């Protein structure tokens, strides 16, 4: 656990999932930053969290027993060659935004991915989202492309910009050797 910005950053545990869901569902219902239209169910999030255990980090920021936000990684694509690339995302509770916490939490996630031997982190950002684009840019991601009008949410088409950051160089690290898949 790391002390940071008057709180702590640690791995998410099962007991955090309700708070994570609350932050996520608020965003789903009020913005286009997440392309789900309907709130997610706890059981579904639990499945995702269980599947990520041992492979992809999920981190939370906690202050005085309250969860201020989470950052997590997931598989970018399922085919084996993509096994060293992780898709990353971050959501803060509204009151926790705009104070530099995004920087601290996302940086911790990227460091963890680097330690685990991942080669590349990819962020996908629905436009417009100046805060997220600025966050990715300041942490060394570079914009690698835009899918124009790829999603419909809240009565409008939205572009999604893709951002990439290299974490490790050299050949693929055997620790992450994926299970054979179709
Ligand atoms: C995107 C998000 C994680 C950013 O975290 P944050 O703690 O608010 O951002 P920070 O305070 O660390 O600032 C990061 C950068 O964004 C800039 N920024 C913050 N809020 C901004 C805003 N509303 N408009 C423009 N830039 C903004 C900061 O100036 C900073 O830039 P710098 O590094 O060049 O100084 C947070 O706002 C959030 O959770 N938003 C809702 C969910 C979301 O959109 N998640 C991203 C999905 S891709």
Describe the structure concisely.
Helices cover 27% and strands 34% of the residues. The protein is an alpha+beta fold.
Topology:
Blueprint: E1 2-4, E2 7-11, H1 17-30, H2 42-52, E3 58-63, E4 66-75, E5 85-92, H3 101-115, E6 120-126, H4 130-138, E7 142-153, E8 156-166
Parallel strand pairs: 5-6
Antiparallel strand pairs: 1-2, 2-3, 3-4, 4-5, 6-8, 7-8
The structure holds coenzyme A (COA).
Under CATH, the topology can be stated as: Aminopeptidase
Strand order within the widest beta sheet: 1-2-3-4-5-6-8-7
Spatial gap, N to C terminus: 37 Å
Q: What's the architecture, going by CATH?
A: 3-Layer(aba) Sandwich
Q: Rough shape?
A: globular
User: Which percent range fits the helix content?
Assistant: 25-40%
Largest sheet: 8 strands, mixed
Number of helices: 4
Question: Quick one: how many beta strands?
Answer: 8
Describe this structure in words.
The chain is of the alpha+beta class and 182 residues long. The chain has a single domain (2-176), classed as Gcn5-related N-acetyltransferase (GNAT) (Aminopeptidase, 3-Layer(aba) Sandwich). Helix content is 27%, strand content 34%. It contains four helices and eight strands, in the order ββααβββαβαββ. It has an eight-stranded mixed beta sheet with strand order 1-2-3-4-5-6-8-7, sandwiched between helices. Strand 3 and strand 4 form a beta hairpin. The protein is globular. The model has no long low-confidence stretch (mean pLDDT 94). The structure holds coenzyme A.
